[in-house]
Amino acid sequence: MKKQxxxxxxxxxxxxxxxxxAGNGLSLAGSAVAPAQNPxxxxxxxxxxxxxxxxxxxxxELHTQHMLKREADQKRAKITALRAALKxxxxxxxxxxxxxxxxGTPDFDRQQAKVRKAEFKLEVYGRFSQxxxxxxxxxxxxxxxxxxxxxxxAYAKAHGxxxxxxxxxxxxxxxxxxxxxxxxQTRTVLYxxxxxxxxxxxxxxxxxxxxxxH
Length: 214
Description:
By secondary structure, this protein is mainly α. 65% of the residues lie in helices and 4% in strands.
């Protein structure tokens, strides 16, 4: 009789434990399974971009450099022609020339005035051409950089990237200590995994867009 009570008491104890666990959302069969937890928040997604490498790979940059070179060659050719014309114009002022004019005569003075005016025009044209080329190169660089920014922003949004950092390639040899200091001060990324680099992807996107519009 005593053994029967012991068995009954043991059965009630097990039933009580099972009921307690069930009331807490658990069961004896699933007591080893941990409750579900919320996933850890995802950190920001970062990418790196080498702007100099990207620029060198762009069809737009190659086209721009070709156009600037052609314009520069045209201006140099005009300057060469103006110098040749000026040299010919100044020949009568050279006393050793067969076309020499007598110094102090009205013809000599008129020719000298023409030469000085031509010299001034040549100097002005040369300086103006230099400023034009500098301005054209600056405008081209600004346009390309603006296109890079637009493309990078669109790519980052499409791929869930929170931050894009600019990286640069360290030159094998720096010419001066100042160059080294400048490189250290302006460099923002010391190391980046290849998985973070998007330079070639941005170049491919921009070249495809350029080819479709030109």
